[in-house]
Design goal:
This protein is α/β, with parallel strands linked by helices. It is 38% helix and 26% strand. The chain contains ten helices and 15 strands. The longest helix has 15 residues. It is globular and about 60 Å long. The mean pLDDT is 90.
Length: 255
Amino acid sequence: MNSMERRHEIVQLALSAGKVDVSELALKFDVSGVTIRADLNYLDRQGLLVRTRGGAMASNRILREMPLTERRDKRIAIKRLIAQAARTLVNDGDTLILDSGTTTAEIARCLTGYRHLMVMTNGLNVAGNLASIDGIELLMTGGKLRKVSQSFFGRHAEESLARYNFDKLFLGVDGFDFHVGITTHFEYEAILNRRMCEAAKQIIAVTDSSKFNLSGVHKIRRFGEIDILVTDSGIPDRFASALESRGVRLIIVEA
């Protein structure tokens, strides 16, 4: 386990238990106390933990990650409305990236009736929904599978994206903070998401309004650095106004 992976696990442990202890972490990860203190100091500077004597506490601004199996049916009716609205942005012949996630998985279900679409995804569940649809040329990023999110990540996934140019990216959201922007829980997924943004001509964020005013651990995109947002009518007014003032097109479905 490298430092990036260890720090991610430390944050998750703190979120689960409320606090973490230097000596217990050193024993768990088989590293020195000096290394753990450096990790905690780094995470404190990033605002991901709050440093305490002998350890650290969870930061109350960080969104806890839920396994995909728990997230799948949450607000499913709204996610399906968002997916149907997102489908109207797809034209026959488009090349697409579908990020992993539950909302993008619903978009995948909607992509029927096209003669030809090329779709790349890092989501195992997304690929499963696309696999049986006629007219879909399905590409997988490959890489290492992260089971909690059923998503692939890593150098192989990043390199596979670099070989293509895509028309549109449908980007899932774990948290959408007014000051921080679009975030996710896992650093390697954030890196891959940033590569997706670089590979696509148009960035379309898709999220239900429960993700606003929340923050994941790792930043993908600054506030306003997207082309289109598809969400529901629960979006806070200040978010809507600020995004529109930055030239972001809003597509809002009734919740």
